[in-house]
Amino acid sequence: MKGIDRREFLKIGGMAAIAGLGGKAAFEILAPGKLEAAQQIPLTKGKHWAMVVDTTKMDDALMDVCIEACHKEHNVPNLGNPKEEIKWIWKETYEHAFPGQEHEYIGERFHGMNFLLMCNHCTNPPCVRVCPTQSTWKREDGVVMMDMHRCIGCRFCMAACPYGARSFNWGDPQRVRTDEKLMPMNPGFPRNKDYPTRSKGVVEKCNFCAERLAKGDQPACVEAAAKVRKGALVFGDLADPHSEVRKVLKENYTIRRKPELGTGPNLFFIV
Amino acid sequence: MLDTALKGTQRYWGWLIFLLVLMGIGLGCYLYQFQEGLRVTGMSRDVSWGFYIAQFTYLVGVAAGGVMVVLPYYLHDYKAFGRITILGEFLAIAAVVMCLLFIFVDLGNPVRIMNVIMYPTPNSILFWDMIVLNGYLLLNVLIGWNVLSAERKGIHYPGWVKTLIYISIPWAFSIHTVTAFLYAGLPGRHFWLTAIMAARFLASAFAAGPALLLLLCLIVRRVSRFDPGEKAVRTLGGIVTYAFILNIFFLLLEVFTAFYSQIPGHMHSFVYLFAGYEGFGKLVPWMWTSVGFAILALILLIVPGTRRKDDTLAVGCAAVIISSWIDKGMGLVIGGFVPNTFDRVFEYWPTTPEILITIGVWATGFFVLTVLYKIAVSVKEEVGA
Ligand code: SF4
Ligand code: SF4
């Protein structure tokens, strides 16, 4: 995990600092219009972030650790209602994560096995194609971003994403601070003061921890996973032939979700 | 000409007040939705479009259907439609107004709606849909108003209006084609991923639009001294018949492709809609209602005896409207989302506020329609047409 990408991260961190992004609470301080501009600054030229999930090293407990790390980092509330659910990273069984690829004679270990899913940061993302306001766009470093200050909440992107990776704020997420029922489920919300909470009526999703990448850190889920088991999640730059993701992809057989759709998912699973 | 809308019978005013009450209830519910967010609706992460977008999709068809009288009259000089083109154009105006309102009430952030114009995005079909819908509205307002005021003054409308009329014909096709493209080009939504989507949309539009227009003509004949003309009604009946047959045929093509290919993703939505999938089947009774009305419509419209009688023709048209409203509204939109991209079923059903807002928008449309028709009919009565 530590290996080669560390250097890349530091370089990016430096650039981000120059761009004035590295500071604490940058997202909150900047005005909406500026936030947009700032987010559009390419962190590195010609980079291609990707993640590999090694399912042989994953288990349910570890997935929970990753989910909690991400949802804490990004103030994703637990609304206690599947209809309003917001999730950036979640668990899903093999047959539903890869519908059409399951069969009854599948290897023992896949029976009821969960996969860790998130936005695939597709190379050719349909969510970006359909958005009428460019609220969601693909950065030059491969991260598919969301601008919650511009989104009009048409939810076209949700219809277009074939991976169910997008969530919508059907109500105001801030109400978890006042609602008696929701408070105990979200202690200390917002749990990360450096990351903004959202307003009602906007779409959100995993952002590959762009705010952490800007500082030269690994995504929250990757960092949390590494503390439990090395190599369960590997994050890095596909454009760099010496990166760790390239190494694990070279050495292992990996699958992606619905590759036949041509979206080019950048989330790989070692099975 | 607006003055003619201000003189009316008690029945006319009673109807308008009734609509105003419904609009008021809808507005109240909308303010509640505005405050609370779209959580007051039945939509969810898995079914992210619902009743509003279903109405929108259906009404774009009604708006486009108006071209079925404009086109024969102006391109083929079919004189019988001369008396009712204005009714077709005004119906299109009311329908587009409803379309725009339904998009508006569906937005999570309506106050930011101008972002669509401030950040024009040519690769988004929604951007083009906004352009064609607003353009179509403008075209119909300009054409309808100018043609009618010329008629009132007993003169011929200006030449540039003729140009607009010619533009409005392909434009009508475009509004429904573009709306079909909202659905047709999305990866992973098997139910919508079909090249025949736009054709299906047009077929159902050319059935549903003229069917409503025909009913309106029959009503106008009852409540006013203006007679749309026997021949126009007969021809409209024929158009509805052929378009509806085509619509059913296209639907059957989809069913064949799904079930002969046996590709699970393509079959699942149909199974969900018509038989229930994995124990879920909220829409099943609705879809069979749609089928029932479709069969009734086909019988009444195809048999010459019933098509030529006003009463049975009206029932046939009402059946077309109900059948296609269910099929193309709820069926098409919800069927695309269920089962979801994980092949899991999360069902959708509109909530009470959602339904009341929907009724409010429909009432607004009918309010616009009534006033416009009142003006048109008064002018027609005045000039003794
Ligand atoms: S997974 Fe979905 S939301 Fe993420 S980039 Fe791909 S299409 Fe967009
Ligand atoms: S909901 Fe927001 S991000 Fe999604 S398509 Fe609409 S404007 Fe774009």
How is this structure best described in words?
The complex is a heterodimer of chains A (271) and B (385). Chain A has helices at residues 5-18, 26-29, 32-39, 60-73, 94-97, 126-130, 156-160, 210-213, 220-228, 244-251; strands spanning 49-54, 89-93, 114-118, 136-138, 144-146, 167-168, 203-204, 233-237, 254-255, 267-270. Chain A is of the alpha+beta class and 271 residues long. In chain A, strand 4 and strand 5 form a beta hairpin. In chain A, helix 4 runs antiparallel to helix 9. In chain A, 49% of the residues are buried. The model of chain B has no long low-confidence stretch (mean pLDDT 95). Chain B has helices spanning 10-36, 51-65, 67-75, 85-106, 115-118, 125-153, 159-184, 197-223, 230-261, 264-274, 284-302, 304-308, 310-337, 352-382. Chain B is globular, with a radius of gyration of 21 Å. Chain B has 14 helices and no strands. Classes of the chains: A alpha+beta (271), B mainly alpha (385). At the A-B interface, helix 5, helix 6, helix 7 and strand 6 of A face helix 5 and helix 6 of B. The complex binds iron/sulfur cluster (2 copies). The site of one iron/sulfur cluster has 14 residues of chain A, from helix 6.
Q: Which terms would index this structure?
A:
heterodimer; A: 271 residues; alpha+beta; 4-stranded mixed β-sheet; two-stranded antiparallel ribbon; 10 helices; 10 strands; disordered N terminus; B: 385 residues; mainly alpha; 14 helices; 74% helix; globular; binds iron/sulfur cluster
Helical percentage of chain A? 25-40%
Question: Over the alpha carbons, how many angstroms does the gyration radius of chain B reach?
Answer: 21 Å
Mean pLDDT of chain A: 86
Major sheet of chain A: size, sense and barrel closure? 4 strands, mixed
What oligomeric state best describes the polypeptide chains here?
heterodimer
Instruction: Tell me which ligands are bound.
Output: iron/sulfur cluster
Helix content of chain B: over 70%
Uncertain runs of chain A? 1-42
> What characteristic shape of chain A results from the CA principal axes?
globular
The description of the largest β-sheet of chain B is: none
Give the percentage of residues in beta strands of chain A: 5-15%
Instruction: Tell me the overall shape of chain B.
Output: globular
Give the number of helices of chain B: 14
Instruction: State the separation between the terminal residues of chain A, measured CA to CA.
Output: 19 Å
> How are strands sequenced across the largest beta sheet of chain A?
8-1-10-9
**Most residues in contact: chain pair:** A-B, 47 and 46 residues
What is the total tally of β strands of chain A?
A: 10
